[in-house]
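[#protein-structures] MJ: dropping Cytochrome P450 here for a structure pass
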Amino acid sequence: MLTLGVTFATVVGWWVLASWAKPKLPYPPGPKGLPFIGNVLDIDPQAPRPTYAQWSKTYGDIVYIRIFGQDIIIVNSEKTARILADGRSEIYSDRYRSSVYKHFGTSRVTFVLEYGKEWKTHRKLFHLSLRNDVVGRYNDLHLNHARQLSENILRDNSNSFEHLDLYANAIITELVYGRRVEGKDDPVFVMASALTEVLNKEVTADRIGLVKVMPFLLHLPSWFPGAGFKRKARQCRKLATEMVDLPFAMAKDELERGVLPHCMISDMLKQGGVEESSAKAAVSSTASVLKTIMLVMILHPDVQDKVHAELDTVVGRGTIPTFADRPRLPYLQAVLYEVMRWNPPASLGLPHATTTSDIYEGYYIPKGTLVHFIFANRAMKDHGYDDPDRFDPTRHLTPDGQLSPESRQHNLIFYGFGKRVCPGRFFADHSIWAATAVIMSTLKFGKAKDSSGKYIEVEPIFPNGLISCPAPFSCSVTSRPVE
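AK: finished. C-alpha cells for Cytochrome P450:
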C-alpha cells in the first residue's frame, strides 16, 4: 500500500512539474485535456480516426494532444507531413523508446528501431534486395503464388481471409528465407498469423503512453488488474523468437550446404560482417489491402464489372495477366490507388518521434513528441477530394481514361514519409498488383445467401489496430469461364 502511495505521489509530482515547465512558444492548437490523463478520454481507442478527422477540421493541419504526459501531434496534411518528415528528417525520423516493444519481443524489428546505426544497417540490407530496380526479378514468384491464391479461394471461399493471409506470408517467407510455405498448417505461417494478431491488438499508442508515465505496470504480476496484457506479451515474445529463429536457422544451414535458393538471407549473409539480428529482420504485409479489395468488389459490383471488362479487352478472357500487361490496365491500377486512399492499411501509422525540440510555424514541438502522420486521406485536407467517403476509382484517371500523374505521386504517401518510408514498398506494390490481377481475371465476387436464400448484407467495418483490416464477411465466389 505504501509503495502504491509513493508511486502515485511521484506521478502526480511529475505532472505538476511538467505543467510548470511551460515553453515560451505555444504548442500547436488542440483540444484541452484533463489533468494527468490528458486527452485519453477524448479518443475512442476502437475507432480513433473519426476523432482525428474532426480535430483536423477544428484545429487545422497539425493538432497537439497529451495522453498520460506524452506529447503527441497529429498531422493531417500531406504538405505539412513532407515539410516535417522529408525536410526535417533528422528530427522526425526516430521511434519512441518504449519498454513495451521489448516486452513484446519486437524491440529489434526494423520498423520500431530507434534512429541510429542499427536502423541504418537494416535499411541498407532491405535496399540491397528490395529497391525498385531489382524487385522485377520476383515477378514470377508473385504470379505463381497469385495463381495458387485464386485456386484456394475458389475451392474454399469460406476461408478467403485465411487464404489471403497465407498468400502474403508465403511470398514474404520465400523472399526472405528461400523456403516455400506449403499450406495453412505450415509452422511458419501458424506462428506468423498468431504473432500478427497479438501485435495488432496489444501494441497500441494508449498503452505505450500509459507505460511511459507508469513504468511499474510492466513489473506487476499478470493477474493484477490492468496488467493482463503481460500474458499476451509473454506469448508474443515466444512467437517472435520462434518465427525468426526457425526459418533463419534452416536457411543458414542450407546456405552452408550450398542448396539455399537465392533470397534476401543469402544476399545478406554473403555480405559478411552482418549481425544475425539484422539479417533476420523482415516485415511486410499485403493481406489487409487484398481483403479490402474483396470487400470493395462486393460493395461496388459496377467497379468489379469495369475491372473484368478491362481485363477481357486488354488481356483476353481466360488469360492470366502478366506484369507486361500492367501499363495497359489503368482502371485496375486506379482501383488499387482508390483502395489505398479509402482504407490505407497503416491508416494511423506507427508514430515517429522527435529527436530534439523543434519550432514549426511558430509552434513549439518538444523533444520526444510522438508524431502521427495520418494516412487516411479522407481526413487529409490538401487534396480536395469530392465526397471523400465515396469509393470512386475515376478520381485517379484523366478524362481519356489514363492514370493521372498526380495520383501516381500521391499514392506513395501510403508507404510512409521521410527516412521511415517503407523499405519494401516496391515489393508490396508488385505483390498487391499480381494478386488482384490474377483473382480478378479468374474470379467473380458477390454477396452470399443465408439458409433461406436471402442475400447477406455486407458492412464495411474496420476494427482498430496497427493495421486497418476489414472485419470478416461472407461472400460468394464463382469462376469466370472462358467465353
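MJ: nice. Residues 93 and 352 are 6 Å apart (CA to CA).
AK: one more thing. DSSP finds 18 helices and eight strands in the chain.
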